[in-house]
Design brief:
Layout (H helix, E strand, L loop, with lengths): L5 H4 L1 E3 L6 H8 L9 E3 L5 E3 L2 H15 L4 E3 L5 E2 L1 H8 L3 H10 L5 E2 L6 E4 H26 L6
Antiparallel strand pairs: 1-4, 2-3, 5-7, 6-7
Helix pairs in contact: 2-3, 4-5
Length: 149
């Protein structure tokens, strides 16, 4: 049975430039200090839970900056190709990362094909960004010294 693309099925929202001001104002709100009320078609009202309010505010911030927002569960399982696409890396390089255990993966039952949890891909990306930032800070610190290297 063919596996359909997780990324293709994900809900993706593109920013509308005409909403930028409202999105920016929404993004500045503090989740704990607001209540979001949804009016149902029958006139009823529903207060959204805090988790959903945090998602809405985080999404508003990204949309205000002109970024598209894709909604995926962190437990979603991606193919190595999808993981590579999210990380902006080549599929062969991601395959090497999987082989080395830098990103955990599991084989599909009865198959040699691997899947990767989105949360593991995002954790790898955060580690990579922290290392990059650390190297940048070290380089900046060394620029002001008279060390021979």
């Amino acid at each position: 049975m063919a596996r359909s693309s997780v990324l293709a099925r994900a809900e993706k929202v593109e920013p509308d430039p005409s909403h930028q001001c409202a999105l920016a104002a929404t993004a500045r709100m503090v989740p704990e200090s607001i209540e979001v009320l949804v009016r149902t078609p029958d006139g009823g009202e529903l207060v959204l839970p805090g988790e959903l309010v945090r998602i809405l505010l985080a999404s508003a911030g990204e949309l205000a900056r002109g970024h598209a927002v894709t909604v995926l569960a962190s437990e979603a399982q991606l193919s190595p190709t999808e993981a590579a696409e999210l990380l902006g890396l080549s599929r062969p390089f991601v395959a090497r990362l999987l082989d080395a255990g830098d990103i955990p993966s599991t084989n599909l039952p009865g198959s040699s094909h691997r899947v990767v949890r989105l949360s593991d891909v995002l954790a790898f990306q955060q580690r990579r960004e922290r290392r990059r930032e650390g190297r940048r800070q070290i380089a900046e610190a060394l620029e002001g010294t008279d060390l021979p290297y």
